[in-house]
Amino acid sequence: MDKITLLSLASDLKRIALAIQRNSPKNAQRFQEEALKWLHQSKNSLPKNNDSMGKILEKVEKCLSENNDLRKAEDLLMYGTIIQNRTMVF
């Protein structure tokens, strides 16, 4: 598993959350495109025995497909923090 891709994903998730909270849909959209790129790279490099991270990445993908609102911002901020913390453990 590549730590850099996961940390980049976590960073972009936090940026999306901030953009939504600041009512900046263009920035949120741009960072969402980047986050999807990192998400697909992370899923491809994920080891088969790491089910917990796989489940988190699936939830992130589902969350990214939702409309921009404060709930999405809070969820993305939470997932960004979880991914960042889990990445530091590995």
What key attributes describe this structure?
0% strand, 90 residues, 4 helices, mainly alpha
Strand content: under 5%
Mean pLDDT: 93
Oligomer: single chain
Largest sheet: none
Class of secondary structure makeup: mainly alpha
Please report the distance between the alpha carbons of the first and last residues.
Answer: 9 Å
> Globular, elongated, flat, extended or rod-shaped: what is the shape?
elongated
Radius of gyration from the alpha-carbon trace, in angstroms: 12 Å
Helix proportion of residues, in percent?
over 70%
* Count of the domains: 1
Low-confidence stretches: none
Q: What is the H/E order? A: HHHH
**Number of beta-strand segments:** 0
Q: How many separate helices?
A: 4
How do the helices and strands line up, and which of them pair or pack?
Layout: H1 3-21, H2 25-45, H3 51-64, H4 70-89
Helix pairs in contact: 1-2, 1-4, 2-3, 3-4
Textual characterization of the structure:
The chain has 90 residues and is an all-alpha fold. The chain has one domain. The protein contains four helices and no strands. The longest helix is centred in the middle third of the chain and has 21 residues, at 25-45. It is elongated, with a radius of gyration of 12 Å. The termini are close together.
What is the structure about, briefly put?
This protein is mainly α.
